[in-house]
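2024-03-11 09:14:02 DEBUG pipeline.ingest accepted 1 chain
2024-03-11 09:14:02 DEBUG pipeline.ingest length=240
2024-03-11 09:14:03 DEBUG pipeline.predict start
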Amino acid sequence: MTACLALTPYDSEPWEAGGDPTFRKSLEGVTAPDIHNRVHTWIGGNMNLASAPNDPVFWLHHCNIDRLWAQWQQEHPKLTYQPQSGGPPGQNSDDLMPPWSSVRVSAVLNHRSLGYVYDTENPTAQGDRMRPGDTLRGGDSIGSGDGRYRLVYETDGNLVLYRDGERTPRWSSGTQRRSPGMCVMQMDGDLTIDDADGQRVWSLGTDGRGNRLRLTDEGTLEVSGLSGEIAWRSAHEVMA
């Protein structure tokens, strides 16, 4: 698996077979080490037939294949899914995924946006939001899309929302004077802060698997669920 995870790019022409080794071809089984196909053949029975989903091992196996895909993305953050276009029908980024009539390939490329992470992950939050499992460590931050606001997990342990050019925070967790550990958007939907000793020092108190935090261009923090419903929103006013 180490050799497979080291391969780049994700895939390349010819898409079906042949050509240089790629991560997808190695993971699928077009080329060695044949991680996906080999397991089906080794187990046999239903696993070697179109009825493979009848075997409970099928689901364990495919969860692991998905985990390896997530690990490859984490190890190669600048690389993207291929083919974006010009590949077989149903495989291009904007193609519909049969038999579903409304789900496109691009909608399932980021597993964290679907509301889950693997316990081998500890990704740093990027852009204007914290997805399930996303983490901020001392000095890390996310920014609004227009760049005017920034949420910073400061090195004194406080989580603070600032507007560019202002020194008075718009919102704060009030956890200053604590050694910084990690601020995490938890899988159960809560935003929490643990200190350097791993002790829980603060939680937002939100609930809902798949929740994510977003810093809006209006300077507010919003926690919303997979449906888009707002579970919590910070005040817009500058703190006294």
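2024-03-11 09:14:41 DEBUG pipeline.report The chain has four helices and twelve strands.
2024-03-11 09:14:41 DEBUG pipeline.predict end
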